[in-house]
Amino acid sequence: MSVVTSLPDVSELSHLDLDGWRAWFIATVTRLIHWLPPAGVAIFYQSDIRVEGFWIDKGYLVMRGTEAAAARVLWHKIVCRKPAGTIALGRASYSHMIAVTTAARASEAPVRSPDVLPDAGAMPWSRAMGVAACEVACRFLLDHAETRTVVDPFCGRGTVLAVANALGLDAIGVDIGAKRVRSARAFVVSLGAAIPAPAGQSPLDRGAELFDLGAYWDAHEVWESRWRVTRDSEERQLLQGLIQVAAALHKVVADAPLPAARLFSRGLAKLATLSQTAPKLDAFQRAVAAYARAHEAQQPGGVAIPSLVEALREPAPK
What we know:
Largest sheet: 7 strands, mixed
Helix content: 40-55%
CATH class of the largest domain: Alpha Beta
CATH topology of the largest domain: Rossmann fold
Oligomer: single chain
Order of helices and strands: EHEEEHEEEHEHEHHHHHHH
Strand content: 5-15%
Number of domains: 2
Structural class: alpha/beta
Protein backbone atom coordinates (compact mmCIF):
# COMPACT_ATOMS: atom_id res chain seq x y z
CA MET A 1 0.00 0.00 0.00
CA SER A 2 0.97 3.63 -0.54
CA VAL A 3 -0.44 6.85 0.89
CA VAL A 4 -1.64 9.99 -0.90
CA THR A 5 -3.15 12.49 1.51
CA SER A 6 -3.49 16.03 2.86
CA LEU A 7 -3.32 16.46 6.62
CA PRO A 8 -5.92 18.79 8.22
CA ASP A 9 -5.30 22.47 8.95
CA VAL A 10 -5.14 23.83 12.48
CA SER A 11 -8.62 25.29 11.85
CA GLU A 12 -9.99 21.75 11.46
CA LEU A 13 -8.60 20.55 14.81
CA SER A 14 -10.21 23.06 17.14
CA HIS A 15 -9.18 21.17 20.28
CA LEU A 16 -5.49 21.97 19.59
CA ASP A 17 -3.66 25.29 19.78
CA LEU A 18 -1.10 26.15 17.12
CA ASP A 19 1.84 24.51 18.91
CA GLY A 20 -0.24 21.42 19.63
CA TRP A 21 -1.33 21.17 16.00
CA ARG A 22 2.25 21.50 14.74
CA ALA A 23 3.37 18.68 17.05
CA TRP A 24 0.40 16.56 15.95
CA PHE A 25 1.14 17.25 12.27
CA ILE A 26 4.80 16.21 12.50
CA ALA A 27 3.96 13.12 14.56
CA THR A 28 1.21 12.09 12.11
CA VAL A 29 3.57 12.37 9.12
CA THR A 30 6.03 10.17 11.01
CA ARG A 31 3.36 7.59 11.90
CA LEU A 32 2.12 7.38 8.32
CA ILE A 33 5.65 6.81 7.04
CA HIS A 34 6.32 4.15 9.66
CA TRP A 35 3.09 2.43 8.60
CA LEU A 36 4.26 2.05 4.99
CA PRO A 37 5.31 -1.39 3.76
CA PRO A 38 8.89 -1.60 2.39
CA ALA A 39 7.71 -0.96 -1.18
CA GLY A 40 5.32 1.84 -0.21
CA VAL A 41 5.48 5.58 -0.88
CA ALA A 42 3.77 8.41 0.99
CA ILE A 43 2.80 11.51 -0.99
CA PHE A 44 1.75 14.55 1.03
CA TYR A 45 -0.14 17.46 -0.56
CA GLN A 46 -0.17 20.53 1.69
CA SER A 47 -0.87 24.23 1.26
CA ASP A 48 0.86 26.81 3.45
CA ILE A 49 -1.34 29.04 5.61
CA ARG A 50 -1.19 32.22 7.67
CA VAL A 51 -2.14 32.12 11.33
CA GLU A 52 -2.41 35.39 13.26
CA GLY A 53 -0.36 37.10 10.59
CA PHE A 54 2.48 34.56 10.57
CA TRP A 55 3.37 32.09 7.83
CA ILE A 56 3.08 28.34 8.48
CA ASP A 57 5.22 26.31 6.05
CA LYS A 58 3.64 22.85 5.85
CA GLY A 59 6.36 21.64 3.50
CA TYR A 60 8.82 22.19 6.35
CA LEU A 61 6.55 20.28 8.75
CA VAL A 62 6.39 17.34 6.32
CA MET A 63 10.21 17.37 6.16
CA ARG A 64 10.39 17.37 9.97
CA GLY A 65 8.16 14.31 10.12
CA THR A 66 10.15 12.63 7.36
CA GLU A 67 13.43 13.15 9.21
CA ALA A 68 11.90 11.82 12.43
CA ALA A 69 10.90 8.66 10.54
CA ALA A 70 14.43 8.30 9.11
CA ALA A 71 12.85 8.34 5.65
CA ARG A 72 13.98 9.96 2.40
CA VAL A 73 12.38 12.38 -0.02
CA LEU A 74 11.97 11.12 -3.59
CA TRP A 75 10.77 14.44 -4.95
CA HIS A 76 9.25 17.75 -3.93
CA LYS A 77 6.95 19.56 -6.38
CA ILE A 78 5.22 22.92 -6.24
CA VAL A 79 1.64 22.93 -7.53
CA CYS A 80 0.11 26.26 -8.54
CA ARG A 81 -3.40 26.61 -7.12
CA LYS A 82 -3.74 30.07 -8.69
CA PRO A 83 -1.92 31.70 -11.64
CA ALA A 84 1.56 33.03 -10.87
CA GLY A 85 1.36 36.60 -9.63
CA THR A 86 -1.95 36.12 -7.82
CA ILE A 87 -2.08 37.82 -4.42
CA ALA A 88 -3.41 35.34 -1.85
CA LEU A 89 -4.87 36.75 1.35
CA GLY A 90 -5.19 33.51 3.32
CA ARG A 91 -4.10 30.10 2.08
CA ALA A 92 -1.07 30.19 -0.22
CA SER A 93 -1.64 30.21 -3.97
CA TYR A 94 0.54 27.09 -4.28
CA SER A 95 0.80 23.70 -2.61
CA HIS A 96 3.67 21.37 -1.76
CA MET A 97 3.53 17.81 -3.09
CA ILE A 98 6.22 15.68 -1.46
CA ALA A 99 6.90 11.99 -2.07
CA VAL A 100 8.63 10.06 0.71
CA THR A 101 9.95 6.50 0.98
CA THR A 102 11.66 4.33 3.58
CA ALA A 103 13.48 2.38 0.87
CA ALA A 104 17.23 2.13 1.33
CA ARG A 105 17.86 3.02 -2.32
CA ALA A 106 16.01 5.03 -4.93
CA SER A 107 15.08 3.46 -8.26
CA GLU A 108 17.94 3.17 -10.72
CA ALA A 109 15.84 4.96 -13.35
CA PRO A 110 15.50 8.69 -12.55
CA VAL A 111 11.99 10.08 -12.32
CA ARG A 112 11.65 12.71 -15.04
CA SER A 113 8.72 15.03 -14.39
CA PRO A 114 8.25 18.77 -13.82
CA ASP A 115 9.14 20.24 -10.43
CA VAL A 116 6.47 22.94 -10.83
CA LEU A 117 2.92 22.08 -11.97
CA PRO A 118 1.15 25.11 -13.47
CA ASP A 119 -2.35 24.00 -12.43
CA ALA A 120 -3.73 21.77 -9.69
CA GLY A 121 -6.70 20.92 -11.91
CA ALA A 122 -10.40 20.87 -11.15
CA MET A 123 -11.20 21.09 -7.44
CA PRO A 124 -14.50 19.32 -6.67
CA TRP A 125 -14.68 21.15 -3.33
CA SER A 126 -12.84 24.02 -1.65
CA ARG A 127 -10.33 21.88 0.26
CA ALA A 128 -9.83 19.29 -2.45
CA MET A 129 -6.52 18.23 -3.91
CA GLY A 130 -6.91 19.19 -7.56
CA VAL A 131 -7.67 16.38 -9.99
CA ALA A 132 -4.55 17.07 -12.08
CA ALA A 133 -2.33 16.97 -8.98
CA CYS A 134 -3.99 13.72 -7.87
CA GLU A 135 -3.33 12.26 -11.29
CA VAL A 136 0.39 13.14 -11.11
CA ALA A 137 0.65 11.50 -7.68
CA CYS A 138 -1.27 8.36 -8.62
CA ARG A 139 0.49 7.95 -11.98
CA PHE A 140 3.82 8.08 -10.14
CA LEU A 141 2.66 5.20 -7.93
CA LEU A 142 1.40 3.33 -10.99
CA ASP A 143 4.71 3.74 -12.85
CA HIS A 144 7.32 3.67 -10.07
CA ALA A 145 5.91 1.88 -7.01
CA GLU A 146 5.19 -1.80 -6.52
CA THR A 147 2.04 -1.20 -4.50
CA ARG A 148 -1.35 -1.10 -6.23
CA THR A 149 -3.52 0.20 -3.39
CA VAL A 150 -3.76 3.88 -2.46
CA VAL A 151 -4.79 4.87 1.07
CA ASP A 152 -5.99 8.36 1.99
CA PRO A 153 -6.52 8.55 5.77
CA PHE A 154 -7.99 12.07 5.50
CA CYS A 155 -9.98 11.48 2.32
CA GLY A 156 -12.56 14.27 2.53
CA ARG A 157 -14.91 13.92 -0.42
CA GLY A 158 -12.69 11.39 -2.16
CA THR A 159 -10.80 13.11 -4.98
CA VAL A 160 -7.68 11.00 -4.45
CA LEU A 161 -9.76 7.82 -4.29
CA ALA A 162 -11.71 8.64 -7.46
CA VAL A 163 -8.56 9.44 -9.45
CA ALA A 164 -6.81 6.29 -8.20
CA ASN A 165 -9.82 4.20 -9.26
CA ALA A 166 -9.92 5.93 -12.65
CA LEU A 167 -6.31 4.80 -13.18
CA GLY A 168 -7.08 1.20 -12.20
CA LEU A 169 -5.68 1.36 -8.66
CA ASP A 170 -7.53 0.14 -5.59
CA ALA A 171 -8.26 2.87 -3.06
CA ILE A 172 -9.18 3.01 0.64
CA GLY A 173 -10.34 6.23 2.28
CA VAL A 174 -10.97 7.23 5.89
CA ASP A 175 -12.58 10.40 7.18
CA ILE A 176 -14.13 11.53 10.45
CA GLY A 177 -17.11 13.12 8.68
CA ALA A 178 -19.95 10.77 7.75
CA LYS A 179 -21.26 13.15 5.08
CA ARG A 180 -17.83 13.33 3.44
CA VAL A 181 -17.56 9.55 3.47
CA ARG A 182 -20.91 9.23 1.69
CA SER A 183 -19.73 11.75 -0.90
CA ALA A 184 -16.44 9.91 -1.38
CA ARG A 185 -18.21 6.61 -2.00
CA ALA A 186 -20.26 8.14 -4.80
CA PHE A 187 -17.68 10.46 -6.36
CA VAL A 188 -16.21 9.48 -9.74
CA VAL A 189 -13.99 11.33 -12.18
CA SER A 190 -13.23 10.71 -15.82
CA LEU A 191 -9.63 11.64 -16.50
CA GLY A 192 -10.49 11.76 -20.18
CA ALA A 193 -12.06 15.14 -19.45
CA ALA A 194 -8.56 16.57 -19.59
CA ILE A 195 -8.08 15.15 -23.09
CA PRO A 196 -9.32 17.28 -25.98
CA ALA A 197 -12.47 16.03 -27.67
CA PRO A 198 -11.88 13.88 -30.74
CA ALA A 199 -11.84 15.70 -34.06
CA GLY A 200 -15.36 16.71 -34.96
CA GLN A 201 -16.79 16.27 -31.45
CA SER A 202 -18.07 19.45 -29.86
CA PRO A 203 -17.58 20.33 -26.17
CA LEU A 204 -21.36 20.00 -25.83
CA ASP A 205 -21.26 16.37 -26.95
CA ARG A 206 -18.09 15.62 -24.97
CA GLY A 207 -19.69 16.98 -21.82
CA ALA A 208 -22.87 15.00 -22.52
CA GLU A 209 -20.87 11.75 -22.60
CA LEU A 210 -19.26 12.57 -19.25
CA PHE A 211 -22.64 13.61 -17.82
CA ASP A 212 -24.18 10.26 -18.74
CA LEU A 213 -21.22 8.48 -17.07
CA GLY A 214 -22.01 10.28 -13.81
CA ALA A 215 -18.82 12.39 -14.06
CA TYR A 216 -20.81 15.56 -13.44
CA TRP A 217 -17.87 17.69 -12.35
CA ASP A 218 -15.88 16.74 -15.45
CA ALA A 219 -18.86 17.59 -17.67
CA HIS A 220 -19.12 20.92 -15.85
CA GLU A 221 -15.44 21.65 -16.60
CA VAL A 222 -15.72 20.76 -20.30
CA TRP A 223 -18.80 22.93 -20.80
CA GLU A 224 -17.38 25.82 -18.79
CA SER A 225 -14.22 25.90 -20.92
CA ARG A 226 -16.44 26.44 -23.98
CA TRP A 227 -18.81 28.85 -22.20
CA ARG A 228 -15.87 31.13 -21.35
CA VAL A 229 -14.92 31.67 -25.00
CA THR A 230 -18.14 31.53 -27.03
CA ARG A 231 -19.93 34.79 -27.80
CA ASP A 232 -23.10 33.18 -29.18
CA SER A 233 -25.80 34.16 -26.68
CA GLU A 234 -27.96 31.07 -27.25
CA GLU A 235 -25.00 28.71 -26.88
CA ARG A 236 -23.90 30.52 -23.72
CA GLN A 237 -27.34 30.15 -22.17
CA LEU A 238 -27.56 26.45 -23.08
CA LEU A 239 -24.09 25.74 -21.69
CA GLN A 240 -24.72 27.72 -18.52
CA GLY A 241 -27.96 25.84 -17.91
CA LEU A 242 -26.19 22.50 -18.35
CA ILE A 243 -23.26 23.65 -16.19
CA GLN A 244 -25.63 24.49 -13.35
CA VAL A 245 -27.53 21.20 -13.69
CA ALA A 246 -24.23 19.29 -13.62
CA ALA A 247 -23.13 21.30 -10.57
CA ALA A 248 -26.47 20.51 -8.89
CA LEU A 249 -25.99 16.78 -9.45
CA HIS A 250 -22.45 17.06 -8.12
CA LYS A 251 -23.94 18.62 -4.97
CA VAL A 252 -26.43 15.74 -4.78
CA VAL A 253 -23.49 13.32 -4.77
CA ALA A 254 -21.82 15.47 -2.11
CA ASP A 255 -24.99 15.27 0.04
CA ALA A 256 -25.53 19.05 -0.07
CA PRO A 257 -29.28 19.35 -0.74
CA LEU A 258 -29.73 23.11 -0.33
CA PRO A 259 -27.00 24.16 -2.83
CA ALA A 260 -28.27 21.40 -5.14
CA ALA A 261 -31.80 22.81 -5.05
CA ARG A 262 -30.58 26.34 -5.84
CA LEU A 263 -28.46 25.14 -8.76
CA PHE A 264 -31.27 22.96 -10.14
CA SER A 265 -33.60 25.98 -10.06
CA ARG A 266 -31.16 28.26 -11.89
CA GLY A 267 -30.08 25.71 -14.47
CA LEU A 268 -33.57 24.49 -15.28
CA ALA A 269 -34.83 28.06 -15.65
CA LYS A 270 -32.19 28.71 -18.29
CA LEU A 271 -32.95 25.48 -20.15
CA ALA A 272 -36.71 26.17 -20.02
CA THR A 273 -36.28 29.47 -21.86
CA LEU A 274 -34.60 27.58 -24.71
CA SER A 275 -37.48 25.16 -25.26
CA GLN A 276 -38.67 27.06 -28.35
CA THR A 277 -35.26 27.31 -30.02
CA ALA A 278 -33.90 23.96 -28.74
CA PRO A 279 -37.00 21.76 -28.44
CA LYS A 280 -34.97 18.54 -28.48
CA LEU A 281 -33.88 19.38 -24.92
CA ASP A 282 -37.44 19.91 -23.69
CA ALA A 283 -37.93 16.30 -22.57
CA PHE A 284 -34.50 16.33 -20.90
CA GLN A 285 -35.33 19.53 -19.04
CA ARG A 286 -38.67 18.15 -17.83
CA ALA A 287 -37.08 14.87 -16.70
CA VAL A 288 -34.36 16.71 -14.75
CA ALA A 289 -37.05 18.93 -13.20
CA ALA A 290 -38.90 15.81 -12.06
CA TYR A 291 -35.70 14.45 -10.53
CA ALA A 292 -35.04 17.79 -8.78
CA ARG A 293 -38.55 17.79 -7.27
CA ALA A 294 -38.15 14.21 -6.10
CA HIS A 295 -34.75 14.98 -4.59
CA GLU A 296 -36.14 18.02 -2.76
CA ALA A 297 -38.88 15.79 -1.37
CA GLN A 298 -36.16 13.29 -0.37
CA GLN A 299 -37.65 10.65 -2.67
CA PRO A 300 -35.25 10.52 -5.65
CA GLY A 301 -35.11 6.73 -5.85
CA GLY A 302 -37.93 6.32 -8.33
CA VAL A 303 -36.82 9.02 -10.77
CA ALA A 304 -33.90 8.40 -13.12
CA ILE A 305 -31.42 10.94 -14.42
CA PRO A 306 -32.18 11.25 -18.16
CA SER A 307 -29.56 10.61 -20.82
CA LEU A 308 -28.27 13.86 -22.27
CA VAL A 309 -26.53 12.04 -25.13
CA GLU A 310 -29.87 10.58 -26.20
CA ALA A 311 -31.58 13.97 -25.86
CA LEU A 312 -29.01 15.57 -28.13
CA ARG A 313 -29.40 12.78 -30.69
CA GLU A 314 -33.16 13.05 -30.92
CA PRO A 315 -34.34 15.15 -33.85
CA ALA A 316 -36.26 18.24 -32.95
CA PRO A 317 -40.06 17.91 -33.37
CA LYS A 318 -41.38 19.39 -36.63
